[in-house]
Design brief:
five-stranded mixed β-sheet; 15 helices; alpha/beta; 15 strands; ten-stranded mixed β-sheet; 36% helix; single chain
């Protein structure tokens, strides 16, 4: 087992030795300003507004919900579910927070770059979000939040629809969720084609696994465009049920992906039932995919930190698995577990874009996730010093 080979006394540890550096941007070129090219990264996903507020146990009982529930609501669903939004928005301390997995990641990438304390000026990187929103006040909250943190919005605005939202009821640190996907489901092929030059003016694409529910053909085309131009593709698994329901589609997109990210539980689902150890999980997934040089698997494991692995297809063996351990966080310091995995990926990629060593990328991901844990939703202090 992996944990038997690693000591938790160090912040990172690798078994299987390998040169794990990846140079995407030359740091020497940046420092000398020699023919430097902007590095840009684009995320495609559901732009959602989280409506978060404390609720009482009476409300939970009245509406027949359970803490931990995740309910997907539609306009014609149980009226009680839709009423939950009115209740949350009537609370005196209601918070409106940009949500959605990839939107979280893009905001964290940009936030981390804004707080760089090394030689990398922020102007050399562009971070963009691709999706669709309605023409309403929720749209304004999303646009303002993206622009405030430096994420370039490439958003289709649907005049006849409303922005997707997620009601988050909080009771004694536990939560229930009522999600209503509306405009974000309707990102159109026409908008993609009209903005294709702008989309392809990025070096990397992050794909949200949740989009496999209704946007598989669109994702296939985008992956094709990015892969034939030798650009990077990052695929997130999003949730265990996504892996179960869309297994073959994930494998197809995964064959083109340079990084596949998710939780260790999602990874086990992708690896299959014969994966008895963490090492087997990595090997099984790598062997299910077509060979691709320098592909990384990147999985979070809650309080145990995160794992990053690379396979040598030529020698048919793992090059390495790196484990980055998470620091101990006191229970009273933890405000919210949601968004920590998204934040880890954002912190990781903000360093990976600069060609940093994989160990440093993992450490930075852990730092970002730890900060998110101490805030409500995927929020963070605008200015912070990363040590």
């Amino acid at each position: 087992m992996l944990d038997d080979n690693l000591s938790s006394s160090s912040s990172t540890k690798s078994y299987y030795s390998s040169d794990s550096s990846t140079n995407l941007v030359s740091l020497s070129d940046i420092s000398s300003n020699k023919s430097l090219t902007l590095f840009s990264i684009l995320g495609i996903g559901d732009p959602i507004v989280d409506i978060l507020s404390e609720i009482s146990s009476d409300i939970i009982e009245k509406y027949g919900m359970k803490l931990g529930d995740s309910i997907f609501a539609s306009e014609d669903c149980d009226e009680r579910n839709l009423e939950m939004y009115k209740i949350l928005e009537s609370m005196p301390l209601v918070n409106y927070i940009p949500g959605g997995s990839v939107q979280n990641t893009m905001r964290v990438i940009s936030w981390r770059l804004n707080n760089d304390d090394d030689i990398i000026p922020r102007k050399y990187f562009k971070v963009s979000m691709l999706g669709s929103v309605g023409d309403d006040l929720y749209k304004n909250k999303i646009m303002n939040a993206l622009e405030d943190i430096g994420v370039n919005p490439i958003l289709e605005i649907l005049k006849d629809d409303k922005t997707s939202r997620c009601g988050v009821g909080v009771y004694k640190k536990e939560k229930l969720f009522v999600t209503q996907l509306r405009a974000s489901k309707r990102l159109s092929e026409k908008f993609i084609e009209e903005n294709l030059d702008k989309i392809l003016d990025h070096h990397a694409l992050i794909i949200e696994g949740y989009l496999l529910n209704n946007k598989f053909e669109m994702l296939q085309k985008l992956c094709h465009y990015f892969s034939i131009n030798n650009k990077m593709i990052i695929l997130t698994l999003s949730a265990s049920f996504i892996v179960k329901v869309h297994y073959d589609k994930l494998i197809e997109l995964g064959n083109k992906a340079d990084i596949i990210a998710g939780s260790l539980q999602e990874a086990k689902e992708l690896a299959g039932t014969d994966a008895n150890s963490t090492q087997d999980v990595f090997i099984n997934i790598f062997k299910k995919l077509k060979p691709k040089d320098n592909r990384l698997l990147l999985f979070t494991d809650g309080p145990n930190g995160a794992l990053c692995g690379k396979y040598n297809y030529e020698n048919d063996q793992l090059d390495y698995i790196i484990q980055c351990f998470a620091p101990k966080v006191k229970d009273e310091e933890i405000k919210d577990l949601n968004g920590a995995g998204d934040a880890f990926l954002g912190g990781f990629l903000s360093e990976y874009m600069k060609g940093r060593d994989i160990n440093d990328c993992c450490k930075n991901g852990i730092k970002a996730a730890t900060i998110i844990l101490k805030n409500v939703g995927c929020t963070f202090p605008k200015k912070i010093k990363f040590q």
